[in-house]
């Protein structure tokens, strides 16, 4: 373990850990319905600084992460969940992908979903999305079969 080398980010590029932690801050903030301005005000920062943290452009220090965990009502470990599963990218390895859960459209969908107060309507929306996802999977599988059968001449 001590012999394991940890890759350092290239000059000017944020480290994968900082991107991941920042994304988790954004996810939690959005889930709670807080703006960047509100989070910043709660911990004595400008919304621009919160933006930089969320993009991973600036590293979040331990004490600041502790403050954020209190405002965001979560444990510090929450911010690192899922990163260890990805492993650390080797230098020059561009395989690190931002978690789809952290994308803007996912956050918007989640926020809108939680604004539906009627449980029956929420269940209908969930079934609709699941049905669309299943349909999309079937279509993709059919396309893959077509491509595979064309290549086997």
Structural summary, described in words:
The chain has 153 residues and is an all-alpha fold. It has a domain at 1-98: lambda repressor-like DNA-binding domains (434 Repressor (Amino-terminal Domain), Orthogonal Bundle). The protein is 59% helix and 0% strand. The protein is built from 7 helices and no strands. Helix 1 packs across helix 3 (47-55) and helix 2 packs across helix 3. The longest helix has 32 residues, at 119-150. It is flat, with a radius of gyration of 20 Å. The chain starts with 15 loop residues before the first helix and ends with a helix. The model is unreliable at 1-5 and 86-96 (pLDDT under 50).
Compile the SSE list and pairings.
Elements: H1 16-31, H2 36-43, H3 47-55, H4 62-71, H5 83-86, H6 104-114, H7 119-150
Which percent band covers the strand fraction?
under 5%
- Oligomerization category of the chains in this entry: single chain
CATH superfamily of the domain at 1-98: lambda repressor-like DNA-binding domains
CATH topology of the domain at 1-98: 434 Repressor (Amino-terminal Domain)
Number of helices: 7
Mean pLDDT: 83
The major sheet is characterized as: none
CATH class descriptor of the domain at 1-98: Mainly Alpha
Q: What's the number of extended β-strand segments?
A: 0
Ranges with pLDDT <50 over ≥5 residues? 1-5, 86-96
Rg: 20 Å
Order of helices and strands: HHHHHHH
What helical percentage do the residues reach? 55-70%
**Helix/sheet category:** mainly alpha
Known CATH architecture of the domain at 1-98: Orthogonal Bundle
Shape: flat
Gap between N and C termini, in Å? 50 Å
């Amino acid at each position: 373990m001590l012999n394991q080398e940890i890759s350092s980010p290239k000059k000017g590029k944020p480290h994968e850990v900082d991107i991941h932690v920042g994304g988790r801050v954004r996810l939690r903030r959005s889930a709670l319905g807080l703006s960047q301005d509100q989070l910043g005000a709660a911990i004595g920062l400008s919304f621009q600084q919160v933006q930089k943290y969320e993009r991973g452009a600036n590293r979040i220090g331990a004490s600041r992460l502790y403050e954020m965990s209190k405002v965001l009502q979560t444990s510090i470990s929450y911010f690192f969940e899922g990163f260890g599963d990805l492993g650390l990218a080797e230098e020059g390895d561009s395989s690190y992908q931002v978690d789809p859960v952290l994308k803007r459209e996912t956050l918007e969908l989640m926020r809108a979903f939680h604004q539906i107060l009627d449980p029956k309507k929420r269940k209908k929306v969930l079934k609709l999305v699941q049905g669309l996802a299943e349909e999309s999977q079937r279509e993709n599988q059919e396309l893959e079969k077509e491509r595979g059968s064309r290549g086997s001449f």
